[in-house]
């Protein structure tokens, strides 16, 4: 492991890569801060740029954007009560009341230190956990991978949209359907192209991400600009108050941070869970642990109430890298986008990444820590200035997002069919978003579609067409049993709600 | 009558899945692959059935979390204009070139979204695109076809 850490440090500490982490953190913070735009949009906008770099540098840039976006999301949660990302919703519970009390600077500083500590601790957990899990996952076979992918897709559907399991499963199926367009990987037979040459190579991953996130988010913002429920309440963006944290507040944070980082990391590792659930769980756990006097302050500007979700959401970000790096199966929508980018680089993530591309594996882990340090150094003193970005008029912001999305696709294919296809998918996605159809399951399914088919093909061919491979091995059977339990539980909940109504 | 739009979307998805399934059965496979345990149409067929299953369930099960969208508050007109501008942008980018179409796309988008600060609108369209184009074309070496700039002799 020491050797790996040194390889990672050598790669991550080159001037170019440090610069990439800085640029990534900075742009991620800005994009993540804008309400409605999350880390997936930020990373999607970066993908065309990363293709000019080597895989390690590209991924380091995207990891920086990811952390920056999560940090930026907490800034808009605290200052506007308008979370930039779902993972920072819990941050607004106590962050916004604190800002209303004239302690916006302090709230932002607590959020920054908690994010730093949560991210750093979870990077250390990742350091120890990822190599061990990589070794274990080497024993995985095609049926296990197939079952694991079904579990990942079911889990993300279960967690991504509360009470909307069936909608999320429909999005999973739609993502897999979109992935099936184009040539079959083994026989080269074209499928669902309707004799259109532009579809022979399938639909580009970047196109789908840009359409379902960047573009549809921009359209949704315009569509809802007069919606009174989405109007943000203003806290003064020019007078944020002191960013100093006193001794009493520090003592509270010392207790909250370690426990929230553990829960955040473990939740992040689970496929489909991620920062949102981690932050809510950490917030709830903290409220149950603290004494009655402190419990009373929750929702009114509690230090523990702000520190816990902030620590947990950053820890979950690192945790979500574990399944991606060790199994090649992303645990969240954001890591699914990164997996797609890795595949675009020609790098196959999975248990062998640790051996075949140690520089990528270790440099990502090391760059996480560097990213945390940079975020703290860069953002803490710049908070008062960065906060003013929240005042950028949407009249400029929206066309620029559309411009970056369309240019991103155009420079990849120089084909206007792709632009039309992107607009079409974006319009459908915008409409579906209005009715709460979640997009992350679609992206995860789109990325996993090819791999899933490949593993099913291998499993069925090896078992001579028999579906017994699903319960032949204990591991496969256990994974499938977990999937079935999730499905049955969510269907039961739907039925139960009906009876209750 | 109050129509639940989520159910309508589910119905559309059901029809789409049925069409997908029909098309999946039409996929031509090699003769020797016809009876193989797995061929090019196997996975799509399962997907078609999965689509029918989940959208069918959504259709028949009650919807306790009915989403009510306040259509009156939504900005359909401006969104539609923006989409049309984007389509025109896509249609002209190859013929006219990157610089002019992108600049006009940005400028007109600012205008239709209600912006009237002309100087800022200009700065964030023409010079901004020129700088971005220089970054792509000049620095990152990404070729951008531009008949307009070629016709006026700016680009070789």
- Overall structural class of chain B, as computed from helix and strand content, comes to mainly alpha
**Biggest interface between chains:** A-B, 67 and 69 residues
Into which percentage range does the β-strand content of chain B fall? under 5%
The tally of beta strands of chain A, per DSSP, is 2
Helix content of chain A: over 70%
Give the ordered list of helices and strands of chain B: HHHHHHH
- CA-to-CA gap between the ends of chain A? 56 Å
Q: Would you identify the regions of chain A where 5 or more consecutive residues have pLDDT less than 50?
A: none
The total of helices of chain B stands at: 7
How many structurally independent domains of chain B?
A: 2
What percent of residues of chain A are in strands? under 5%
Please tell me about this protein's structure.
- The complex is a heterodimer of chains A (501) and B (156).
- By secondary structure, chain A is mainly alpha-helical.
- Chain A has helices spanning 2-12, 15-33, 39-50, 55-80, 89-100, 104-137, 142-160, 165-179, 205-223, 247-269, 275-289, 292-297, 303-319, 321-327, 333-344, 353-356, 358-386, 394-413, 416-434, 440-462, 469-472, 474-500; strands spanning 182-183, 190-191.
- Chain A has a two-stranded antiparallel sheet.
- In chain A, helix 3 (39-50) runs parallel beside helix 15 (333-344).
- Chain B has 2 domains: 5-68; 73-151, no CATH class.
- Chain B has helices at residues 5-26, 42-60, 76-96, 98-112, 118-123, 126-139, 147-151.
Main traits of this protein?
heterodimer, A: 501 residues, mainly alpha, two-stranded antiparallel sheet, 22 helices, 74% helix, B: 7 helices
